[in-house]
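Let's sit down with a protein and look at its sequence and fold side by side. Please make up or recall a protein chain and show it to me in full. Label the sequence line and the structure token line clearly, so we can match residues to local backbone shapes. Go ahead whenever you are ready, and we will take it from there.
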Amino acid sequence: MQAEISSLAPVVRQTPETGHFLETYIETGVAKIVLHIADRAAVVRPDFLITSPSDGTLAPFAHVMEEQQFRTYATDRLGVCRVPDVCLIGTDGIVLQAGQVVRDSIRHIMYWHPDSVTESMVATESIVLKRTMQARCAPAKLQCMIGFTGSWRNYAHWLQESVPKLAVFAERFSAGGHVKIVLPQFEPGSFQDQTIQLLGIANESIITIQSDEVLHFQSVLLMSSTDLWSVPPYVHDVARTLVARASRMAPSVSAYGDRLFIHRQTGLRQLANFEALQDLILRRGYKILVPDAMTLVEQIAAMQGATHVVAEHGAGLTNILFCRPGTKVLEIFNQACVQPAFWSVAGVTGLKFGYLIGTHVPTAERPELDWNASYSITPEQLTAALDSMD
């Protein structure tokens, strides 16, 4: 497979298709491991509290929820390597090594964002840039670690893909200021900025890359990537670090109650009849939370106090990483996006998990069923699901 990039070379070949990219670099002698973080692990996803019938013709990943072979998964080992001759392309986080695209770095680029320099892509396969870009060489003596992935604008991807890199940097490389971390410029008060503050990463430790900038490093520290569908236990270790730090400044967990309903207010994958269900949700003792209206510390505190969490599928459900073991979680899907991401989180966090599938609701923006379509659930469905959690 090939990836076109008009500025650095007309055609750029990718790393080999088999094996994790750092594993490949280590085996071939390209990269040198400088820090071992976690061994490979086998994770068991929990048995379901409740399920809904799914249609595999509508939901391409529904079989993962149903077939016994997917009850367990294996993770890659995690480490940090020093890699020579690396270019980092903008806030898309595209990484080239010796002119070759590192395929792990083009897994989840948000190419539809206005600041993206990506014209088109096929995840882990190919990428085309919008325009010619010239590389600027970082100072030869500057020691840096790349601390983000191209999906950093999404809360779920941020917590599980970028924050582990930040946590490793904060714990192992930031002391003394000899190593810097490369990040986009985050808005003050954003969840990204709040995370950096919570981890204690100082501004002087950060090298900022602009959206249309290419930085070339003689060598750079790269951490192996994590997978949202095969979540490594280390992601939960990082969440526990955030919980410990947030506990020093958080409101009392009792302020939120022990039963939470996480409501999604963005225009994608909306529970169309939420207002009609709201009284039922409240009568059953659930407090409705909108994560976008809360600080990161408040979200962590709320989840720490929860014994029951019901949530519409979306990035806010990533907060179950902060739950105590044994918490019961119910995820609500539309008919197309049934998939195991948060079931996997439940596996590494020690949670109990079930899911409910709604019925497609056509809208002007999405008249046909797709991954981001709206849906509804009946009061009877919701009542039965909540009963299963008691």
